[in-house]
Amino acid sequence: MYSLETLSAIDFELSSHCNSKCPQCPRYDTQGYVQKDLNITHLDFFNIKSLPLSKMPNLKEVSFCGNFGDPLMNPHLDQIIDFFAKQNITISTNASLRDEQWWINLAKKNNVEVTFCIDGIGDTHELYRRNTSYNKIIKNAKAFINSGGKAIWQYIIFRHNEHQIKEANRLSAELGFKKIKFMYSDRFDTDNTWKVYDNGKYQYKIEKASNQVTLREHLGEVEGKKYWNKLYQGKGKISCVWRDKKRLYIHSDGGVYPCCMLANITVGNQLEKILLKKIVHDFEKINIKNHSLEQILLSEAFLKNIPKSFRNDPFQHPICIEYCNQTNGLYKMSDIQKVNQIDIQ
Ligand code: SF4
Ligand code: SF4
After folding, report:
1. Among residues 44, 51, 61, which one has the least CA distance to residue 9?
2. Atom 8, ligand 1: which residue's CA is nearest?
3. 260 close to ligand 1 (CB < 6 Angstrom)
4. Is the CB of 319 under 6 A from ligand 2?
5. CB 301 near ligand 2, within 6 Å
6. Cα angle, residue 19 at apex, residues 14 and 20 outer, rounded to 5°
7. Is the model's pTM score more than 0.70?
8. How far is residue 309 from each of residues 12, 13, 239, 312, measured CA to CA in Å?
9. Are 21 and 32 in contact (CB under 8 A)?
10. Per-residue pLDDT tens digits for 286-335
């Protein structure tokens, strides 16, 4: 059951604008065009201000991350940060945005921690974070850290940047990051390589890391095929990880979702999007532009349809099976995705 009273964390997508062109980002189709049905917008500060924080005594954490854009693109970011003065704020960004002075000012806000997404050193970083500038990011990170800001370095390991892991580990300590977090991309769901296109033009290929075991490989599905059959054969009960953590997601267009993974499939013409509509029925009824968060949590979608769907009534959403089934879902299987510590030292 969702309630304002018990809510402990909200993830906000503050913007669906982005300066970067990361090849596996759902913002783009496989040909590197921005998805046609993406609503390119900023989450309105007016709607955020309307959230009844006084009725949410357990809201300890807000996170600015997002599926389709970078939070630093939102022009009201500073006011939004100030609005959440009593919460711990985590911001995840490509960090190739804003000037050093802005970063110095941000460092003064004690409740803010920033995750810098830096996938390699020098030009290597820009093979995935296309259109960003490594030098600008490092300048921003130095300005922030040297002014007292709390910074985490997030490094997605691919084949093309795995030779720099040790060097990145060393550099992160030297620059003063609190820690460096290595992870793998979960977007190699059918193939171990990914062709990078820019507006229809082929650029190059990227490849999963040598030591990465993808969910497809773990389930024994052949390359080139999505693992649905294998997943369904071995699936267990669904335990909603976000609901258990009393966590919610608010999309840049104002839509409220039970997690970021379900919000992630609202763009593009896939079957998953159609199935979500069958569960939610009317997306307008779960949008903070039209209704208060309290009303949304009491809506048919949140009160009945979504929880019922976890119990297979009338069906389980494939994304819920993929992430939260207790036998072979991605959360359960996160161990197979763990980065080998030996690689790092
Ligand atoms: S920085 Fe984030 S939102 Fe922007 S293209 Fe990359 S993954 Fe997508
Ligand atoms: S995928 Fe489904 S079950 Fe998992 S956190 Fe999201 S809503 Fe809950």
Report:
1. 61
2. 25
3. no
4. yes
5. no
6. 105
7. yes
8. 24, 25, 11, 5
9. yes
10. 999 999 999 999 999 999 999 999 999 999 999 999 999 999 888 887 76
